[in-house]
Amino acid sequence: QVQLVESGGGLVQAGGSLRLSCRFSGRTFTNYAMGWFRRAPGQEREFVAAVNWRGDNTYYTDSVKGRFTISRDNADNTVYLQMNNLRPEDTAVYYCAADAWIQGTGYMEEDKYRHWGQGTQVTVSS
Q1: Assign residue 15 a region: left if phi > 0, alpha if psi is -120 to 50, beta otherwise?
Q2: Which of 65, 83, 116, 126 has its CA 20 to 30 A from that of 47?
Q3: Is 15 helix (H, G, I), strand (E, B) or coil?
Q4: Residue 2 has pLDDT above 90, yes or no
């Protein structure tokens, strides 16, 4: 079965950068779209970014456009989320997600992803 393991979270000051990684295993990575979601304290989990299987189509929520970049390395079965100019409101647990049957707006929909990682904490101090 698909396993996803996130890493790279931590504590950073506002304006700083972090790069999250998510290592995929258990199936053929290039069959899967990959997404990042986050859950802030007391809030629902929300979409952050997604990438198609080939890496040539990316999707972002408006609040991270121009600051975050999602990418994937299909040779290394890993998806990344480069986060620059971090803000205190980016503080959340970040989750990696995967699914093989996503199209169109489904990339941004939590219920379209069947496989999830355990999450990694990102804390941005002001």
Answers
A1: left
A2: 126
A3: coil
A4: yes
End-to-end CA distance of the chain: 40
pLDDT of residue 101: 83
Owner of token pair 């258990």: 26
Long-range contacts formed by 37-42: CB under 8 A, 24+ apart? 37/94, 37/95, 37/97, 37/110, 37/113, 38/90, 38/92, 38/93, 38/94, 38/95, 38/122, 39/92, 39/93, 39/95, 39/119, 40/89, 40/91, 40/92, 41/91, 41/92
What's the rounded Cα separation, in Å, for the pair 106 and 5?
22
CB atoms within 10 A of CB 110: 14
Sign for the CA dihedral angle at 61, 63, 66, 70 comes to negative
Q: What is the pLDDT of residues 63-103, one digit of tens each?
A: 999 999 999 999 999 999 999 999 999 999 999 999 998 88
Tokens coding 26: 């258990």
Q: Would you place residue 105 in the very low, low, confident or very high pLDDT band (cuts 50, 70, 90)?
A: confident
